[in-house]
Design brief:
The chain is α+β, with helices and mostly antiparallel strands. The protein contains 2 helices and 17 strands. It has a 6-stranded mixed beta sheet. Strands 1-2-4-5-14 form a 5-stranded mixed beta sheet. A two-stranded antiparallel sheet has the order 7-8. The two termini are 28 Å apart.
């Protein structure tokens, strides 16, 4: 990912992470989220000090003999590449927790999304499945500006109103093509709270 302190914009092009530093000259940092099926899925707004981690089967993978993607993340229960999820993103004030959570959710897959999200107290997370379905929390949905709409896999999961960090209100415009994501916006910092990381979780 690359970032510009002056413009407050970020382009995230693959499996990766970033931590927002500063207030982006009064506007939230805008992050482009890669679509596992090609192009850009949309964008998400970050406040100062928030971490954003994403992972998926679209950047580091091998093809199976049948043409399916084998992810770079292995399921420790089977010793084989994790299946079910195509992309996962986590936004949190604690970058270490966000990193661990993205991997744990990817391994858990759609069936374990709610259980892991609740166990790790993840207010802001989403998953796009291999079947082009989307699981998302209420707080993450409020941060998202989607360029396309994956099939909802149930109602958004309500795990609280914030992402374990600052709460922001967003008003923005998103413009994108297959290779680029440009976002502009403004924010109003309503509240600053400390995120508490879960000390342990199970898959």
């Amino acid at each position: 990912a690359g970032w510009s302190r002056r413009s407050g914009s970020v382009s995230a092009t693959g499996n990766g992470w970033l931590v927002a530093l500063g207030d982006g000259d009064g506007a939230p940092w805008q992050v482009g989220l890669r679509d596992p099926f090609g192009g850009v899925l949309g964008g998400v707004a970050l406040a100062d000090g928030e971490a954003f981690f994403s992972t998926g089967n679209y950047s580091k993978f091998r093809e199976s003999p049948t043409g399916a993607r084998w992810s770079h993340i292995l399921d420790p229960r089977t010793g084989r590449p994790a299946r079910g999820a195509a992309a996962v993103a986590v936004l949190h004030a604690d970058p270490v927790l966000a990193d661990a959570a993205a991997t744990a959710l990817f391994v858990a897959g759609p069936a374990g999304f709610e259980r892991i999200a609740r166990a790790m107290r993840l207010g802001c997370t989403l998953m796009v499945t291999e079947e082009n379905e989307m699981l998302v929390t209420v707080a993450m949905k409020a941060r998202l500006q989607l360029l396309r709409d994956p099939i909802p896999l149930g109602m958004p999961l309500d795990l609280g109103p914030d992402c374990g960090g600052a709460t922001i209100t967003i008003s923005w415009t998103l413009i994108s093509n297959d290779t680029d994501c440009n976002l502009t916006g403004t924010n109003n910092i309503l509240d600053q709270s400390a995120g508490l990381a879960a000390l342990s979780y199970g898959i």
